[in-house]
What does this fold into?
Amino acid sequence: MDQTMKLTHFRDLLAVVRTGSLRSASRHLGIAQPVITRSIRELERELGQTLLERHSKGVTLTPVGERFVRRIQGIEAEVRRAKEEVEQWSGEHSGEVAVGLSPACVMTLLPSAIATFSKRYPKVVTKVTQALFQPIETKLAAGLLDFWIGPLSKKHASQRFAIEQFMPNSRRIAARPNHPLLRAQSLEELAGARWVRPPLSDRYADSDLEAIFERRALPTPEMTVESSSMLITLVTVANTDMLTVLPEQMFKLMPVTRFCAPLENIPALTSDPICMVTRQGLPLTPLAEKLSDLMRKAAHNHARAELTA
It folds into this structure.
């Protein structure tokens, strides 16, 4: 990086991108608009590229600008994290923790962890993003998230990540309460049923249900609805005769049992274990470490409950 490029240049450009115009960025930062304009022009001159396209309704990023902004967002996050880490080691319990969680982990692990964490550290802002690993992988690698927790196979993760297994994971075929197939004894009885494809745990799981049926020489399941969220899956199953596959631990949650129930007579399907993913070789900030400890404890409690059930 050239020595004349400053963090204030990054701050000004990101403010313009986030607010949509130079005028809004000026108000947001409390800095005169000509100062921000000059800052961005200096940055563009330094790079020898146009980063913003100006028009009557505001500004938009050029293709080069989009790539540059993705980079400096990571730099901004690292600078913020470094500053907060020093403060936290000095006993100042404030700042931000940004995490990603799979839909099932939001419903099963987050409740007890966030209740304790927010009570212990009331000045900390906790940013939680619900997502599976593939959509959030780039953000985690760029430092925009402290960690992600969800179902993942170690063999499918990049070496740039450190992976810690929290607990085993399995799935159950599910249907609405009182579904005519709820007492089915085998997969053969499900042939001909229509299905909701739930949010997938990773890019490699696209055809795992189909593969199970194929090994039994059964017709390929008919995927009638493809869901992008757990809520869509539950609502669809609750109001139709469609089947789906859900993490087994979700059936311990009272609200979920109102929408769907597992087909108890059909064995659970194995799935990738629940893991925490962090960037390789980079420690968590003290507060991110505290939250990860609480998530780990919640996972271990779930695992113990499964063993004693």
In short: The chain has three domains: 7-71, 93-168+273-308, 170-270.
